[in-house]
């Protein structure tokens, strides 16, 4: 079963359709966007679809579209990532923040890991980042790189495991991109030299 986001009405209502392998629409779900231009994301989990809309996560039972749980975060969610039977939310806070040295933006990054089964938050953490960070999940670790540092976190606990400062000449070595396999939900890491790790 797949959940497909359909049209958006003039009042910001998004119509989503659960479609089975035979192309039959099994149920529909309507969500309302509060913020213009904010993207909606759908995460396909084992027994549920999780929809991100603005600062709200909603889990829907695959079998009938019933709402299993709903979580409203303090800030608009930039992205969501699946990790087993859990969802990692990623928010950039204070987008109009101050300007540190060299004209770079300083953001506050807020992360939260949520159990898909019941919507319970397992951990939350936040930290400062200079410019928009790169984020990836690899070998049970969360990797985060910005223009001045490279950090690793335990995805299980949210605790920071290491932090390395990046010199001006090494910035490229720490840049990466996370690639998602939409069939399996697995993540791959593409390095600055186009080498892919999984």
SSE topology:
Elements: E1 2-8, E2 13-19, E3 25-32, E4 41-44, E5 48-53, E6 56-61, E7 67-72, E8 79-83, E9 86-93, E10 106-115, E11 121-130, E12 134-138, E13 141-145, E14 149-154, E15 160-165, E16 176-180, E17 187-191, E18 196-197
Antiparallel strand pairs: 1-2, 2-3, 4-5, 5-6, 6-7, 8-9, 9-10, 10-11, 12-13, 13-14, 14-15, 16-17, 17-18
Structure description:
There is one protein chain. The chain is an all-beta fold. It is built from no helices and 18 strands. The chain has strands spanning 2-8, 13-19, 25-32, 41-44, 48-53, 56-61, 67-72, 79-83, 86-93, 106-115, 121-130, 134-138, 141-145, 149-154, 160-165, 176-180, 187-191, 196-197. It has a 4-stranded antiparallel beta sheet, with no helix packed on it. A 4-stranded antiparallel beta sheet has the order 8-9-10-11, with no helix packed on it. Strand 12 and strand 13 (141-145) form a beta hairpin. The mean pLDDT is 81.
Helical residues, percent: under 10%
Which structural class should the secondary elements be placed in? Answer: mainly beta
Strand order of the largest sheet: 4-5-6-7
Question: Can you tell me the residue ranges where pLDDT is under 50 for at least 5 consecutive residues?
Answer: none
User: Average pLDDT, to the nearest integer?
Assistant: 81
The total count of strands amounts to 18
Keywords:
198 residues, mainly beta, 4-stranded antiparallel β-sheet, globular
């Amino acid at each position: 079963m797949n959940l497909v986001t359909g049209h958006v009405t003039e009042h910001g209502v998004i119509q989503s359709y659960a479609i089975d392998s035979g192309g039959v629409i099994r149920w529909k779900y309507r969500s309302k966007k509060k913020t213009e231009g904010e993207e909606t994301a759908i995460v396909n989990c084992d027994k549920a679809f999780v929809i991100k809309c603005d600062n709200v996560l909603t889990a829907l039972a695959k079998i009938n579209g019933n709402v299993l749980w709903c979580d409203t975060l303090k800030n608009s969610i930039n992205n969501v990532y699946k990790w087993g039977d859990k969802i990692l939310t990623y928010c950039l806070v204070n987008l109009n923040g101050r300007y540190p040295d060299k004209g770079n933006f300083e953001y506050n990054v807020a992360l939260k890991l949520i159990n898909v089964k019941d919507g319970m938050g397992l951990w939350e953490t936040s930290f400062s980042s200079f410019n928009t960070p790169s984020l990836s999940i690899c070998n049970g670790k969360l990797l985060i790189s910005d223009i001045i540092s490279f950090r690793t976190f335990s995805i299980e606990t949210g605790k920071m495991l290491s932090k390395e400062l990046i010199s001006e000449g090494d910035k490229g070595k720490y840049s990466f991109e996370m690639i998602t396999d939409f069939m399996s939900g697995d993540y791959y890491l593409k390095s600055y030299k186009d080498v892919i790790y999984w």
